[in-house]
Amino acid sequence: SSKQNGKSKVTRFTSAMKSDFLLRTELSRDMHSALDQQQFQLFYQPIVDQQGQIVKAEALIRWRHPRLGFISPAEFIPIAERSGLIINIGEWVFKEACQHLQQLKQYFHPDFQISVNMSPVQLAEQSSIFQDWHSALDKKGLKGRDLVVEITEGVMMTSSDEIKQRLLSCRELGIELALDDFGTGYSSLAYIRQFEIDYLKIDRSFVDNLEKDGNAQLICEAMISIAHKLKIQVVAEGVEEPGQAQLLKRMGCDYFQGYMISKPIPIQDLLHMPNQLTMI
Ligand code: C2E
Ligand code: MG
Ligand code: MG
Ligand code: MG
């Protein structure tokens, strides 16, 4: 039983666990000053359309810790969610992205969009987050449509009616919604329809297996076809090989993101990329 499992685990507080615990405690503590000390940086990963034109970019946070060096968001975001600091970090990410949006629109295209990742904690704690962001955009002469908010399947699955309404309020403000890491969770198509998602991002685990595994191909094909029937556009994540892009393009995939196009890069580097890439 689970009780028994729990019991046997309690005694095994290994030194690895201890140092892991200490590390997380240290990170949690240091994160508070990291914002003030400007240790966070936004990187951007370009997203191209079927013609190879850079039309969007995903904002991805980086933390340069003075002692520990670079720390992955996969590591520190969960800690920030537990401490509540994700609220401040999320606001910083949004403001920073707004700051860069104007430059990017000027450089690439007036319809250029930035997508930011939204933690379920932000969504739960900040009741007027979309309204607030919309008015911040408005003050800068930007529109809701300039922003895409990425959420994960878990958000849709576990949300209360209140949070569902919050997500739907996006629509009236023009802010677009993307479902991140699609295929790794358990969401049903009914949910996707209910939330009026604009983009579905196929998780890179499917893209990774495309050339090796016939099932991955079938699954990608099915995801794209159903998404399109629901009037949802599809972004493929983690595209590393031209062969993968070729297959996905043939399946009708709308947008491509991955190391094949570019790794996440600082804004200055993005502003030096050619507008048009030779895709495949
Ligand atoms: P995500 O939103 O799914 O972002 C995509 C991740 O895949 C990024 O990792 C990106 O660098 C990586 N990636 C992109 N293309 C490729 C590829 O071709 N191959 C491989 N192997 N990886 C690729 P990153 O930047 O380390 O971010 C990890 C996760 O941390 C993100 O996953 C997102 O869930 C979270 N995250 C990042 N920035 C933020 C943020 O500002 N706020 C919140 N709440 N979460 C964030
Ligand atoms: Mg994302
Ligand atoms: Mg993703
Ligand atoms: Mg991911």
Automatic annotation (TrEMBL):
One of its GO terms (biological process) is signal transduction. It comes from the Bacteria. Transmembrane segments: none annotated. GO terms for cellular component: membrane. Residues 24-278 form the EAL domain. This is Diguanylate phosphodiesterase. It comes from Terasakiispira papahanaumokuakeensis.
